[in-house]
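Example record

The entry below shows one chain as it appears in the dataset: sequence first, then structure tokens.
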Amino acid sequence: MPHLLSRLSFLRLTAIGLVSTALRGRASEIRRARGPVIHHLTDTHHPLDDGRLAGYVDAILEGKIERPDLIVHGADLVNGAPTEAELREQLASAKAILERAGVPVRYLCHNHDRVGDPLEAAGRSFAAIIRQPFIQHVSLPGLEVYLVSGAVTHPAEYHPENYNGKPPSWGFDIYDKQVLASFERFVADNPGLGGRRVLFTHQPIVPFEDITGTGHPDAALIRPYHVVGEEGRARILATLGRTEIRHVFCGHCHFASRNVVEGVEFVTTPSFLRERAGHTYSVGFRVIALQNDHLAHAVRPVA
């Protein structure tokens, strides 16, 4: 049964940059949103976040940021570690910080939430510390939220139907045929209450440009900034069409951007990591709010 979070909240956010439902680089505000509110955090890379994750939680507790109905962490919660024991310590530390907010949190797992090779260590660590499956669904009033993790070998106890009960040898990601088939079955089995369907995943599915002006260490790769490829993207778009998902929120790029492909809105959210590979980034999280059947979202900066 889908998990139902019934509490409604009222959100007043002022001076939030980069409105995204009409995102063309213009700053705007989300005001007095009626309906459920989600905070999308991603790429916090704890403990390299310079305390921003703790500062975000403190701001909620102190009333400086209004409390959302749900926090979705879009993967790369931690920066990775050389040993499985150290990775588990990082995951436990970051999880403890984020859950101090007293808000339901759903987590994705991806490339930095691991200990390198073998990938099985990442799956074991995520299962042991985070204790959430790699494909998830949350019902909020008017919204059906789906999450698909990636870049790790999943443990057999999580959705073993994906690989006939056997973990794959290379990994688990949304562009894999079997993962997409499993996700489509999962949506059919968990349709929710008929609200607008939203997907969170980590890896960008369509090309994005860095419209924030912050630069990116892989600038030459921005236009094809994903590892999906044309064939994989076509499979994903077909699956999104069949599952009636019209909004997809991603991370991984460390910048905020937006693209619309075949009627589906794809959005990236910035990270909590200000500097990487000699480049400086804007840092922040995305506020997503349902307003009269309109999905509004904006980036709010963090210090």
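Notes for this example: DSSP finds five helices and 17 strands in the chain. The helical segments are 52-61, 84-98, 120-129, 177-189, 229-243.
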